[in-house]
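Extended Data, panel c. Modelled sequence:
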Amino acid sequence: GVIGYPNAAPVKAPSDAMPFAPGERLEFELRWGSIPAGTAYLEVQAVKTINGEPAYHFVLVAQSNSFVDVFYKVRDRIDAFADIGMNRTIRYEKKQHEGSHKREELIEFDWEKRQASYSNFGQKNEPIQLMQGSFDPLSAFYYTRTAPLDPEQGPLERPITDGRKNVIGRLKVAARETITLQNGKTYETLRVEPELQHVGGVFKATKNAKIQLWLTDDAQRIPVRIQSKVKIGHFTGELITSEGIRP
């Protein structure tokens, strides 16, 4: 459950149009090069009411294994809340512990004023103005799953915010590909690539940095593989278990 939302009663989610539903849980094995590095999972939790509005609750958790912990411990969790029509983000929380780097971020969205307020460990920034229909990065991923994706079309575009700045996120649908994961499972997929010139951190420091995602080429759009190429090596996440997938 979510702490501190007095009115977080579950409400019924719209079911037909969305490729996902509450109860979906996807677990990934993370590798750094060929070395097992940890696990991550993506989860759609029960619908919550945030600021009087029903919202999807998306969770991303990533943690390094005991081998990697020794030199670079990762314990990350993101909770993102988007309206159930998937039009915009309503709230975003991120607890990040990577090596010696720690953050505890909260972005509160006020859509009447079209503003977002960012804080880290309770230290608040000045609110920023928002572009209509803005998503946080995690909700933007789930939005991608609802959008028509076609390699013949131009890139998918959507405003994205981290609470400190606004960008237009662009996602290129690169190709249809049949891929086989390390566990031997084969999938028909769409390979999609987000543009990274706005993204900071390790991606900024890497020439030709790249993230690629493979989503099943069907109504569910399940992410089965994610790969990133950065200065410190290749990271791969591959789907190992899935629960609560829409039929």
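Confidence is low (pLDDT under 50) at residues 1-13, 200-206. This feature is highlighted in the accompanying rendering.
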